[in-house]
Amino acid sequence: MNTLSNHTDSSFGKLLYERLFKNKEGVIAFILLAVVLLLVFPLCLNTFRLNLTGKYLCYAFVAIGLVMCWGNAGILSLGQGMFFGAGGYCMAMFLKLEASDPESTAIQSTPGIPDFMDWNQVTELPWFWFPFKSFPLTIALIFILPAVLAFLLSVFYFKGRVTGVVFAILTQSMVACLWYFIVGNQGFFGGINGITDLRTLNGWDIRTESAQKTLYYVCSILLLFCILVSRYVLSTRLGRVLLAQRDKEMRVRFSGYNLTLFRIFIFCFAAVLSAIGGAMFTLQVGFMSPNLVGIQPSIDMVIFTAVGGRESLLGAVYGALAVNAAKTAFSEAYPTLWMFLYGATFIIIVLYLPKGLAGLYDDHIKKWIFKLKPKSDSGTTPPSEDLEKEVPYAK
Amino acid sequence: MGGYTAQEIYSIVVMQSFSGVSLLCIYVLMGLGLYIIFGQMGVINMAHAEFLVLGSYTMCLFSKFITESVPALENIYVFLAIPLSFGIAFGVGYLVEWFLISRLYKRPLDTLLATWGLSLIMQQCFRTFIGAREMSADLPEWLLGSWSVNDSIDIPISGLILLVLTIFLTGGLVLYTTKTRMGLRMRATTQNRQMTGALGINTKMTDRVSFGIACGISGIAGAFFTTMASTSPSAGTNYIVDSFLVLVVGGLGSLFGLFISGAFLALLSSILEFFMTGSIAKVWLYLVIFVVLMKFTKGLFSDKVRS
Amino acid sequence: MKTTNRKRTPWGQSLKALLLPTLMAGSLTAAEYPTAEVNTTGLAVTDDTVTVGQLHSITGTMAISETGSVEAERLAIEQINAMGGVLGRQIKIVQEDGASDWPTFAEKSKKLIIQDKVACVFGCWTSASRKAVLPIFEKENNMLYYPTFYEGLEASKNVVYTGQEATQQIIWGLDWAYENLGARTFYLIGSDYIWPRTSNKIARNHIERYLAKKDPKCKVVGEEYYPLGHTNFRSLINKVKLKKPDLIYSIVVGGSNVAWYKQLKAAGITSKKYNLLTISTTEDELLGIGGENAEGFYACMKYFQSQENPNNQAFVAAFKEKWGADSVIGDVTQAAYLGPWIWKAAVEKAGSFDIDKIHAAHPDIELPEAPEGYVRVHESNQHLWSRAKIGKIMTDGQFEVIAISEDLIEPDPFPEGYQ
């Protein structure tokens, strides 16, 4: 960030600055998020809670993806779990292979293959597991696989101009399809149990406290980076066309744009973001399960986005954090009440806060802050904390 | 098929065809309510499956009530339970439309989220107020068995009744939408709300009643599903994807399309399930639907230009 | 604490009286066991309380099945407290909700162990949830008491398996069917996850390798899996009819059960014409299925609510008193009830709450008067020696116990010759 602001004098730097942040307020909001993620949380939370926060941040990747394709391009996907799962499973397969070396699996009838394969009478490693022996290939696949999936899923439908509700339902059925696929191929993907008992990443034990802290930082920095990339995409002509077609599809078409490619691009972009989240999830939680691929988590991710504000990238992060923190807090105390409250959140957000927390900030808190000027730059409290608290009390 | 006699294969083909027909009926019953709500009114009701479950619970609780207090009616209470589950689902649907859906007609994707929230709340209500465990209705003995045509062919009686019920409900719905005043109003309102309002028709009331009727039909379907599946708070999650798909494949605005797509899906899954194991059959079912919709993006039959 | 003692009914009293002599050799007071000595690893043990965790799904799809286990564990803990607790300490429960979601199970187990520092955890139900929490229990070194019958292939030193592993439930049951029902051809059916698949693998091996030696006609004529929650079994039933097996071997789990039995009955597959043996349908499931839909079919379990022995009658009465007269008790519920008792016995045998010492104390702990009958912890693998039983489903949703294995069956999670 520092390097960026140093360059503001040069024209290129200025352009980049405007593209990424628009104005001073954008910079402040971004720095605030960075401070919250990189300083406040690590200082205030113990390792267990920090690890939990790291897990929530993985959902924030998906939420950012949804801001891109739903909030800014009008394509609602109820199937983001599919891509989250793709990324997560890629990473899990790599880690599982590393964890099942011949020595630690010596009691199996076929040592050297993952334990669940042995339980299911698979006697040799299937061919599609071989790429996951290599770390660089795995990383590449985390990006390529979801992009290919998203492309195949969307290309024919966007060509046929199917968006909106029908597309949403289709993505939902495809997520169900993937769930059945994983469950039905227990010997190859671990079935309902998922891929569990992951231990090391290139020899580095990911279960230790220090590793979990490091992973949290990696996750946060990656998230901040993804936000910047997304900002950049939105600020280009492509982003503006997407925004325009969201509101007035026909007008954009009449101006001579072929929307198919734009839409496919943004859908794939969102898919890749989700997959990064999924891969980070596997690393931090230590296993991957088809539960995260199902219909329910996919819709959950949409609600994180809606709570944060479907058009706001930063809002999405706060949304994912707020909903999950509330979920953890309430389900520890009142599990039953939580389900009611969670359901009500959907309704309240849609009825009264269609722009989510970001809208709440823009419409109410901002005015209030501007009243407090001239000291606003340094003296404002971080909006994040306020906003998180406001969820349950929103009218 | 080595080792089987012609008689055996004939019997299996007959029974498998009948189970295909039963599945068709299930698909159609799941889709009927959605046909009004989604196909006609353009509202995506993710809580649709919960209305089915509401009907199932009505049936179960009513049967419990009957066996405990009026055992004399045990054999025929099913006929009373059907209007009752219609009534209850209608009432709940009416209220939901009034307080929730009516504010969201212009934002279909938002309705999707709001109704998903509603479905979570309804599920938790079932769990908290009725109980987390599975329930079952004490069905009269005549409804449970099978009708043995000959030694090797057994036709489920519940399947026969299912068939009758489906024909009856679909016929009723066709009559309702084409012949009755309320039905005509419903279609007028969905086609041109402002114009209909200008003609002095209370469009809000029409919406409410239409939504209620759709939920009521789902309630009846749900009540009947107790004869062959479980009733538990989260039973709805098994229906939701399929019921939307059957409607989308059929083309949103067409009752005939709903039947054809139901037949298509039933045929497909009967064949797939007969030749492969359950989970994989399901994967193939969805993939085939995906490919079919790729070709017919508006569904097999559609009388609307855009959805 | 002690006042609750007075309120107990005669049933509760008699149960205590039965369990008391075997589990408590004299009254223990906290003073004899100073906290510093019994707790050297920083668990949540004070001078008069000890905190344990309970981790089941209270919400979500699995809540149906796990409710019974929650209730049984609470009952056992309440009874132990009424008897004076463990090493003179009253047991406090921290309950967490796994919400039928495996990552949540992992999260909550971490919370219980790291944050609440519980002395042990009673919980989990599905294999998937156990697999999700297992690495955490092993890394943090805590003890899980796991109640469900399961697939085996596991013997962690941090888990006590109070349910049967697969071979305990399957082999004796198949032998019984071979001899008493004359079963020679078998159709294996299961829900699609690891327990049914592994169980059917063991069943198939037993049929093809061992039963076929006795009678070469023995064979498996079909093996099928359906996803959890599946409700359309019509095609499967037609396949069964085509193959006409002597025995339908069913491991259908959860809500699918209801659809499965109702559709069997509707298709004319009743106990008059076919034999069906299940290892997954307990009294809990029959509540939803309705006994009349499954009447006459057989189940192989280690516990049935209708077992006639004074301990079981006392247990059933105490359970009904606490959780309502309508409640039913299935195999897993009873196994869950054993968990706290085994833990208590282990702690008292070890004279310590330390996990390693409890682990060392587990072998050969006996519960001579458990509701299911005598059980003993295995010498090495922390499973239970127990007797298998065959029950016949009756119209009222209960089982009639028609056969009990003569010997205790050894738990063998890694069965030789069945891999």
Individual helix count of chain C: 15
- Considering DSSP H and I runs of 4 or more, what fraction of the residues of chain C is helical? 40-55%
Which two chains share the most extensive interface?
B-C, 50 and 42 residues
Estimated structural class of chain C: alpha/beta
The succession of helices and strands of chain B, N to C, reads HHHHHEEHHHHHHH
CATH homologous superfamily name of the largest domain in chain C? Response regulator
The CATH topology of the largest domain in chain C is Rossmann fold
Indicate the multimeric state.
heterotrimer
Shape descriptor of chain C reads elongated
Largest sheet of chain C: 7 strands, mixed
The overall strand count of chain B is 2
The helix-and-strand class of chain B reads mainly alpha
Q: CATH class of the largest domain in chain C, please?
A: Alpha Beta
Helicity of chain B, as a percent range: over 70%
Shape of chain B: globular
Radius of gyration of chain B (CA) equals: 20 Å
Explain this structure.
The complex is a heterotrimer of chains A (395), B (307) and C (419). Chain A is mainly α and 395 residues long. Chain A has 19 helices and two strands. Chain A has helices spanning 2-6, 11-21, 24-44, 47-71, 80-99, 115-119, 135-159, 164-184, 186-189, 209-235, 237-247, 249-254, 259-285, 295-308, 313-333, 335-352, 356-371, 376-379, 383-393, and strands at 200-201, 204-205. In chain A, a hairpin with a 2-residue loop joins β1 and β2. Chain B has a two-stranded antiparallel ribbon with strand order 1-2. Chain C is α/β, with parallel strands linked by helices and 419 residues long. Chain C folds into two domains: 2-164 and 307-386, Rossmann fold; 166-301 and 391-404, Response regulator (Rossmann fold), CATH 3.40.50. Chain C is elongated. Chains in contact: A-B, A-C, B-C. At the B-C interface, α1, α6, α11 and α12 of B face α4, β7, α9, α10 and α11 of C.
Question: What's this, in brief?
Answer:
The complex is a heterotrimer of chains A (395), B (307) and C (419). With 395 residues, chain A is mainly α.
